[in-house]
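Researcher: Sequence of Hydrolase C777.06c isoform X1 follows. Predict its structure.
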Amino acid sequence: MVLFLGTVRSTPRMTLLAPISRRSAPATSIMRLGFPASSPRRPVLRASLSSGSVTGDDASRGTSQNEQSEIIFMGTGTSEGIPRVSCLTNPLKKCPVCFKAVEPGSKNRRLNTGILIRYTGLNGKSNILIDAGKFFYHSALRWFPAYGIRTIDAVIITHSHADAIGGLDDLRDWTNNVQPSIPIYVAERDFEVMKKTHYYIVDTSVITPGAAVSDLQFNIIEEKPFVVHDMTFTPLPVWHGRSYRSLGFRFGNVCYISDVSEIPDETYPLLEDCDILIMDALRPDRSSSTHFGLPRALDEVRKIRPKRTLFTGMMHLMDHDIVNEDLKKLMETEGLNIQLSYDGLRLPVTL
Ligand SMILES: [Zn+2]
Ligand SMILES: [Zn+2]
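Model: Prediction complete. Tokens:
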């Protein structure tokens, strides 16, 4: 199978430290978009597989020889974060979850939703980030040193809301001080948004020469499988509010859907035989116009039947311990293995 990996541009101001499982890409599967070769703008590539294999046993999903892959939950909360400042300053009402969230080590303390996949494949290890939201710096500050994470070998974007892309500017610390650049995989509609929200990262001709913003290599993804550092990612298109598309991703037998209000019929087949489902569950009582609430999320779990489910994207009405106690009962009554995730959770996975 011929795979496409984003090429890593050399940069005169940096020395590459510890390259991880990178290799040159076959040119045949790369299509450059838009900008002329002499443009200071970032090259934009289309990412794809050369064949349509989605769930085969191809070598690109080789399992770890010595060390297991894992998922680290960088954030499991809503856009404003938990605790909410407004709850802590409310003189009329004491929000129980937000006040618990202030306590050190509280599992109710949640930053913007995102995960880091530490993948150990046939060609070594790589750290693949899904989303870098507004609070990415704070998440990374907390978990990268604690877990010995150095490089960011790729970023994959679910959608272009601020809690998914607001941290792209913070990636400059990596591309200035750790590695020359970071490949980023993004749907065309979200890339169009980034041209406005992060215009100076997309088009570096607008910045003062010498200024060192994040050096991102943009790869446009479509709603079909693509390969990042030897691992196949299958987009899971979902609705995140009426007529707004977001992407979940399947890698190995893990399905990650962080922002969803409706799963289209055509996406369900992609969720079959799922070992671990990580899915949006905003609040305990009902869904919102843009997110599943707990009742709907549970109905979807009953339909998808993964072996294990972890909910994410919880707002301040979701008390970690209380909701988890309730979820535990579903194992006895329905045989469903469901828990809430929490920031910093490390989940060993076989990919
Ligand atoms: Zn609150
Ligand atoms: Zn969103």
